[in-house]
């Protein structure tokens, strides 16, 4: 059972990111402050939900949250400062965009770069433990998926509409055969699919 926010005596924002393991596109992050007593059936870690379930939950979260924000770091920033630091920066940008500033942050994962003047806790697998982190995971994931789907129209050969930039066999094969697009992360290695190159699961 996921826990509600307000484990502390002040406003708490949950933060999560999406797209760290992708070969292309930005990393997105979201910050969400939920109201006390918030309940939303089906709210869970975005990875445990289907695309359709996430799309149903997103507008409810955005409507009922006390505050929410989504931000990103693009592929060039990722190449410059590395994906871990880019994930932290995207979270900082999301927190900065919140119309209501929280007094405490709960971060999904085991590391975070302290946001100025706001204490935080890192929660391993927090998107499956806290409602506000789960809500942030859904917003980060759906906003990023939407971005990559729109980008697919310009670069259909990489099938971003389906893989969203993640290193599927088909995506890796396309990179090896066609080369990198302007939106690929140049510091990320593209492994040769080798024995699974012609897998029907690509």
Automatic annotation (TrEMBL):
<protein>
    <recommendedName>
        <fullName>Ribonuclease HII</fullName>
        <ecNumber>3.1.26.4</ecNumber>
    </recommendedName>
</protein>
<dbReference type="InterPro" id="IPR022898">
    <property type="entry name" value="RNase_HII"/>
</dbReference>
<feature type="binding site">
    <location>
        <position position="108"/>
    </location>
    <ligand>
        <name>a divalent metal cation</name>
    </ligand>
</feature>
<keyword id="KW-0540">Nuclease</keyword>
<comment type="function">
    <text>Endonuclease that specifically degrades the RNA of RNA-DNA hybrids.</text>
</comment>
<feature type="binding site">
    <location>
        <position position="16"/>
    </location>
    <ligand>
        <name>a divalent metal cation</name>
    </ligand>
</feature>
<feature type="binding site">
    <location>
        <position position="17"/>
    </location>
    <ligand>
        <name>a divalent metal cation</name>
    </ligand>
</feature>
<keyword id="KW-0378">Hydrolase</keyword>
<keyword id="KW-0479">Metal-binding</keyword>
<dbReference type="InterPro" id="IPR012337">
    <property type="entry name" value="RNaseH-like_sf"/>
</dbReference>
<dbReference type="InterPro" id="IPR024567">
    <property type="entry name" value="RNase_HII/HIII_dom"/>
</dbReference>
<dbReference type="GO" id="GO:0004523">
    <property type="term" value="F:RNA-DNA hybrid ribonuclease activity"/>
</dbReference>
<comment type="similarity">
    <text>Belongs to the RNase HII family.</text>
</comment>
<dbReference type="Pfam" id="PF01351">
    <property type="entry name" value="RNase_HII"/>
</dbReference>
<dbReference type="InterPro" id="IPR001352">
    <property type="entry name" value="RNase_HII/HIII"/>
</dbReference>
<keyword id="KW-0255">Endonuclease</keyword>
<feature type="domain" description="RNase H type-2">
    <location>
        <begin position="10"/>
        <end position="202"/>
    </location>
</feature>
<keyword id="KW-0963">Cytoplasm</keyword>
<keyword id="KW-0464">Manganese</keyword>
<dbReference type="InterPro" id="IPR036397">
    <property type="entry name" value="RNaseH_sf"/>
</dbReference>
């Amino acid at each position: 059972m996921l826990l509600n926010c307000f484990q502390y005596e002040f406003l708490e924002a949950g933060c999560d990111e999406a797209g760290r393991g992708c070969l292309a596109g930005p990393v997105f992050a979201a910050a969400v402050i939920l109201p006390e007593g918030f309940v939303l059936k089906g709210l869970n870690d975005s990875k445990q939900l289907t695309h359709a379930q996430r799309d149903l939950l997103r507008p409810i979260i955005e409507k009922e949250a006390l505050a929410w924000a989504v931000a990103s770091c693009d592929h060039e920033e990722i190449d410059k400062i590395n994906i871990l630091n880019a994930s932290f920066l995207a979270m900082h940008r999301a927190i900065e965009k919140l119309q209501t500033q929280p007094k405490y942050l709960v971060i999904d994962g085991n590391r975070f770069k302290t946001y100025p003047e706001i204490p935080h806790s890192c929660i391993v697998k927090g998107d499956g433990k806290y409602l506000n982190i789960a809500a942030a995971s859904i917003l980060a994931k759906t906003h990023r998926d939407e971005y990559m789907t729109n980008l697919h129209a310009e670069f259909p050969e990489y099938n971003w509409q389906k893989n969203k930039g993640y290193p599927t066999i088909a995506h890796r094969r396309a990179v090896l055969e066609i080369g990198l697009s302007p939106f690929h992360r140049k510091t990320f290695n593209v492994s040769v699919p080798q024995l699974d190159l012609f897998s029907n699961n690509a």
